[in-house]
Amino acid sequence: MAKGKKTVFFCQNCGYESVKWMGQCPGCQEWNTFVEESVSEQKTVGNRRQREPSRPVSLSDIQMEREERMMTGTEELDRVLGGGIVVGSLVLVGGDPGIGKSTLLLQVCRQLALAGKKVLYISGEESLRQIKLRAQRIGTFNDNLLLLCETNLTDIRKTAEQQKPDMMVIDSIQTMYNEEVSSAPGSVSQVRESTGILLQIAKGMGISIFIVGHVTKDGSVAGPRVLEHMVDTVLYFEGDRHASYRILRSVKNRFGSTNEIGVFEMRNEGLAEVKNPSEFMLNGKPEGASGSIVACSMEGTRPILIEVQALVCRSNFGIPRRTAAGTDFNRVNLLMAVLEKRGRMNLSEYDAYVNIAGGIKMTEPAIDLGILLAIASSCKDIVIPDKVVAFGEVGLSGEVRAVSMAQQRVKEAQKLGFETVILPKVCESAIEPADGIRLIYVSTIKEAVNAIQTGI
Question: Phi and psi for 63 in degrees, rounded to 5?
Fold first, then answer.
């Protein structure tokens, strides 16, 4: 091996570094994710530039300035970012290939360019003609948007210093490379070093940079999980790329909440905002069918009404089958055990299938009561009226526990025309009486099941 070269092993899933190969990663507990990469040993002790060391300062000496933000013109994206793009921030947008990351960012570039901001879109995957074909579907652009096809970070830094844009888009980080790193583009070393250079550009020049990162299920490509600790904000696109909707979720945000989501619909002209996701998710709800109920979940400060469906049928085998789509499988098994023990319902001889309609994934405990009532409705073949909403957390003793922001959930149900809400008894003191909506308070699952049996 050449002098000055050494090899190390990186985990492709989390970036854990080791001097030897290991079958299981100690960091993320995944198997067979280590790859060998060569790393250059740079001797910079003698050539290191002398600089003044940083000095500590007291907290009172730090001058606070209000962070400057750029509005993207898309309310859903601004909400997820915490109120707009912070100047000098580094944002990572992850998701499966083809889900709409490049389309959304090109729309943001168009809106910022029309607002007078200078935008630089750098693509390492598509040619200029391919980008223009997508741009023609989105709308008209002006000269404030500059396009560049480049993968060398040295040339990208020079272009940023010359053009001084307000915003940059890197599409995608897997195609960028640093000449000082000997590994191939897309490897853990290249992705991490390239992000480090982009971080210096963002903080040093005050340029807001969006990085696109692809995620694959098998982890064969170094994905955004290696970079989450380096960037300021991490956004993930969720949803099936074959479906019409997309959900943009914030999992890390140094400038805002990490619980907000944005809902988009894929159309021919690009991604369109869904102003009322509750109405969008409930579209097509069946009427007069058992095993269906509307539950309410909170995503950040936004209540979202979703349809919970359950199908309970007698099992043809000795071991009943359990399936959950859109929610936690283990949580469904737990709720069925509580319903069988505390609700006196024999479910051991029945298969159970639970689905969150629309393909959205919800894991908040507040939908426990909705899942439980949907299972009971299907098992007893009870039709729950269409204008009923239920929310509440269910404990192992069969109690219905309190949830946060109960008042906002009731207001969302009232706004969409629902007439009855089944909610925890302990939330009664936090709810203000409202006209036109009936509130049924329950403290146990027996009371909740009796409410749907006796007719709401």
Answer: -85, 125
